[in-house]
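Table S2 (continued). Query chain:
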Amino acid sequence: MSKKDYKRYTITSALPYANGPLHIGHLAGCYIPSDIYVRYLRSMGKDVAYICGSDEHGVAITIKAKKEGVSPQDIVDRYHGIMKASFEEFGISFDHYSRTSAPIHHETASEFFTDLYEKGEFLEQSTEQYYDEEAGQFLADRYIEGTCPKCGYENAYGDQCEKCGTSLNPTDLINPKSKLSGNSPVLKETKHWFLDLAKYTDFLKNWILVDHKEDWKNNVLGQCRSWLETGDGLQARSMTRDMDWGIPVPIEGAEGKVLYVWFDAPIGYISSTKEWAAEKGIDWEPYWKDRDTKLVHFIGKDNIVFHCIIFPAILKTHGEYVLPDNVPANEFLNLEGDKISTSRNWAVWLHEYLKEFPGKQDVLRYVLTANAPETKDNDFTWKDFQSRNNSELVAIFGNFVNRAVVLTHKYFDGAVPQRTELSEYDQEVLAGLEGFPERIAASIEKYRFREALSLVMDFARLGNKYLADTEPWKTIKQDKERTGTILNIALNIASNLAIVSQPFLPFTAEKLNSILGIKDLNWLDAGSGNLLKGGEEIGKAELLFEKIEDEIVEAQVQKLMEAKKQNEAANATVPSVKDTIVFDDFLKQDLRVVTILEAEKIKKSKKLLKLTVDAGIGKRTVLSGIAEHFTPEELIGKQVTMLINLAPRKMMGVDSEGMILMAEDKDGALKLMVPHDSTAPGSPIS
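Corresponding output:
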């Protein structure tokens, strides 16, 4: 952590792809951590620019558009709106949220490319690139899938394996396939402009592995060290792509090519800052070019190489920009023991959560911070969500505040009681109160947000324990003055709690401020035992949190299980063909249309129904294992297909005289095989 006293802070969060809505993995990865940090800085009175925006130029956009039969612009417009609204409702307090389709971004990214081009930083090379002959176009990295040479994952992309995280070139893949046609692509020559990353190796090694070896997270340093010191080291990387969706390469001879998304996307931080500054009527340049500015990038681990290697190399070459002081990347968040997957709908979507859990933004913020994947991948479960809400937010934080406020209204008519003589225990508690804000701040400034939140909860525990130990509901019977002192201290603990919890639980802190009548207090005020003075009026108690019942989380788990079931059905393979039979074998089967006359459940069996059918040659009794798919009532009168000459078989004490034929769908559902029109019972099928 830098010890420098900076004049201003530029804080960025990774630009989310505008090809789908936000999920909890995004939030835990970088948006909640960055928001906590920024809210803390603002409370400290710092000059902060909190910058983000939608990344609208990735290949994922064009894949989505092609799949839906709409334009890429339609896709980005839709998801930009959804993400921006979700961020706002969830309390992610960006100063500016832009988009990379904005004209100012196209202009800024083009200027960067031109500057590097004119300085001779690019290698112009003709290379062989995968080309889909059926589709008639070169394939961007994400239009190619194949087997990862590192871990064997069969659906690795042409630029990265999402299972092991290895950065790849398309030609590294084993058995590559085009996502456009499914065919094996061919190599075809094309010209591109490469940034020779090898020439920045010494600078990057010194800047990252020496200058920041003490303050950057181990996972970030480890991944950077792998890039810089293993194998052949850094290699030239193409900064252009053969595509028609993106920012056109601004030089002659580059028609039909656009800037590589990871060249233009980080520059989106700068263009978004320009847009923000223009709206405020201030100069944007100090936030990116002044050495008294602290730049911090919050990202997930899959973006480390782009923010620690490629973007700093671009900024260094330009020469006017500050480099990031820190890149506190988080690991991945899993869901119910499985990797979050947007394609499999194995995710908790933010916009859906906001609808299904109204007013509970802080519950999710709390759980995702308490379980943040700061040093290793972690797992979100709905049971843990429920447990943390009920046993921590409700039972500790909410219970303490509620008791302090309710007792103040009950015993002192809602006025903060005067503080009189302090006991030794009172002094001990006030001393403990004084130290919490500094300890919490130290953890935040080291990007240890999980640790900082744990301290906030310890602060609430201090208040809870103080009330439990002093028992004001008992002292009121003998000593009202002593009771007043206890509640004065408790209310001041709650006031401090409102300040230090605000970066983590902004909606709760706002409500708590309203209850206590607190205005214009910030982090520098925290640690005082005299924030509330005797005689000041406080508001009525409100529940800060409410218990979440079993059926609520069970419904969410069932929702995920249904998504898994649908995904398995969609990917189910048709059973292989059975052994070949001869025509005479087929003729042995007597298949006929029958009409179901009666249907009833078999006692002590969950699966069997007893059916009485009109087979045209008399009635037959059939036992069929379809009770979990059909009710007896819906079967009566149906015409179905039956194998009528199957040898009788006794089951559950009943002779079954044939078999009703069914088709089993991909999702395991059974379908009746019925004639197109009403048919005479006993009609043969051939």
